[in-house]
Specification:
The protein is mostly helical. The chain has one domain. 71% of the residues lie in helices and 0% in strands. InterPro entries: DUF305_CopM-like (IPR005183), Ferritin-like (IPR012347).
């Protein structure tokens, strides 16, 4: 049940992306789902502890969940497993959320609307740039050090 809920939580994290093509597998979101699922296991078992009399099993579940929680938080905070492409696959949905919320918010102050419009433009540009970099890295590998970011030269 906890594993299923964790997988569902991972998927739910993408509901606020602007476009379906902005959804990529994200290690960062996977680690976030891991620590949320782990904490859910602790909370659920704590509420239902009276239903389960096997003390050793309960301790093992608590210990395993706390380990998974610490592991997930550590991996999210350290970004140890995140390389160039994994980072962009996490950032594109993040930028997409900014597009969705900026475009659809009910903004009445013209300054705030202008800010939201600028955010939309910037985020869309950065999404396109990341998609281009991912395709280039897939086709050609990493760029040489000192390569111009915008032109590739």
């Amino acid at each position: 049940m906890i594993l299923t809920s964790t997988v569902v939580m991972y998927g739910l994290m993408y509901l606020n992306t602007y476009a379906l093509d902005h959804v990529f597998f994200s290690q960062t979101r996977m680690w976030m789902a891991l620590y949320m699922g782990a904490m859910m296991a602790v909370v659920m078992l704590a509420f239902m502890l009276g239903m389960y009399s096997n003390r050793k099993a309960n301790i093992a579940i608590f210990a395993g969940a706390l380990f998974a929680f610490a592991l997930g938080v550590g991996l999210v905070r350290s970004q140890t497993t995140i390389g160039d492409v994994a980072w962009m696959k996490a950032m594109i949905p993040h930028h997409s959320i900014a597009v969705l919320t900026s475009e659809r918010a009910n903004l009445s102050d013209p300054r705030v609307r202008a800010l939201a419009d600028a955010i939309i433009e910037t985020q869309r540009s950065e999404i396109a740039e990341m998609e281009s970099y991912m395709a280039d890295i897939k086709a050609n590998g990493d760029a040489a050090p000192g390569t111009d970011r915008a032109t590739g030269n």
